[in-house]
Amino acid sequence: MPVMWVTSAVKIGLRAKPITPSLLFARFIPEINTRGIGKHGHHALLFSSDSNSNSNSQNANSPLQTSYEDLISTSGFKRDAYQQHAIDSLTNLQSNLASLNVKRTNGVYMHGGVGSGKTFTMDLFYNTAPTVKKRRMHFTSFMLDIHKRMAEKQKEREEAISGGFLKRILPKIHDDIGGTADSSTERSFSLFGTKIVLSSGDGEYGAVDSNNEDPLPIIAREIVSDHFLLCLDEFEVTDVADAFILARLFDALFKEGLVLVTTSNRKPSDLYYDGLNRQVFMPTIKAIEESCKVISLEESPVDYRGLKTRESGGDIFMAGEEGVEKLGEAWAKLIKGENMVMVESCTLTEASRNIVVENTVQVGGGKVCKFDFKELCESSKMPLGNSEFAMIAGAFDEIFVDGVPNFNKGGSTIDGLRRFVLFVDACYDAKVRVYFSSKHTIKELWDNSEEIYDPRSLNKHGDLLGGASVVPVDTFTRFSLDRTISRLHEMSSDEYIGNSGVEVKEAERSKKKKLKL
Hints:
This protein is of the alpha/beta class. The chain has 2 domains: 21-138 and 217-296, P-loop containing nucleotide triphosphate hydrolases (Rossmann fold, 3-Layer(aba) Sandwich), CATH 3.40.50; 317-516, no CATH class. 42% of the residues lie in helices and 18% in strands. It is built from 18 helices and 18 strands. It has a 6-stranded mixed sheet. The protein has a 5-stranded parallel sheet with strand order 2-6-7-1-8. Strand 6, helix 10 and strand 7 form a beta-alpha-beta unit. Belongs to the AFG1 ATPase family.
């Protein structure tokens, strides 16, 4: 055990077996019959072998099925056999978890194209899942959280090695093993898996981490302890570093008893397709296929993108030549309103990164900011990525973005396009209300081309003086931008607007504050 865990030895040294999902559910359903739990902690069946024969009648009365039926009858949703299959599987999952019916419960992996209703279905499941031990995240936010946890563990390790516990005990150890002030010999020994080097000649004491224990099993244990039911939206792997991490992380998560419900544009076997060193990711695919029921919505005939969207969404996405002017008027009206405090700029800080946001407003208990598209997505002075966009989305309740271009006709770079995708994902996941201005309608931003005209890079023939180039758009970016267009439509809908913005966010914060009291 490396020295980084010395201060937590009492906490994790005598770890009991992981609590299974079924037992965790039982904590929150006290009336449940737990007589099926065997003496070795295994779960005996509480139902007869033909209990699944009545699954359809049981599902008809489930909260998940009821919510689905309500949306069909009141919101214009169309009944879809593929969707119903997913609803049935998710209802059975809830039933298995709540009834202690199984020793180990598999999750659900839903895949399909943009508009197939994956996120819609997962959110219905999440909202009706009868436990507080659950969490719903966008996959990008999940990976940011993992990277943050890993950095914290590394910091703990470094602090433990460089000071604290070791700093206090090393002089004592040195004396006990017979060191002398005038000795120039170097002695070493192992302590908790860490090589301790004693150099008595100059009074220096050092520690070399010789074990380098993987922190991911510890992180997995912490995650499952907090929320054993994890819902991840848009599972997609494009980064080789993430591929290495996920291979070890999901093995540990499933061993700890995680139940995963996730959505993706791709079936598991196509994840990280053609990725660098893909072989290291293959165990993740195997673990997902073994731990989740895989459901395809590829053939769903219903396009869910338009079902929650208004005809124009013109007061959110302000299009046309007058779009910029309309956004400016909306911003001017905001900063002249009551309960408004104008703040010229603010600095967001997380880890070692500082982000300066120039135009910010305090409205009551909420915060609003304004960006130009080029500042947000193309700045070389302050290049932003996943973590920065997540930080911005977490700090502001409403965001104004001026001048969104057409991405096919040289309005932005390929990097600007990709950053715009990340920004919209972060805001959508955080339920931030975003006002956009553009000379183009949402449909005109992107025509699903395989190439875009990038005015800032080489042309096709590599002519350094030839000016702009036509840049190929990879499959992932095309998928992602299709999703972004879909989300821009949804973010203009009455439902999304009604669940976002300063007033809604302030009410949520007030409610959380009261619960803490």
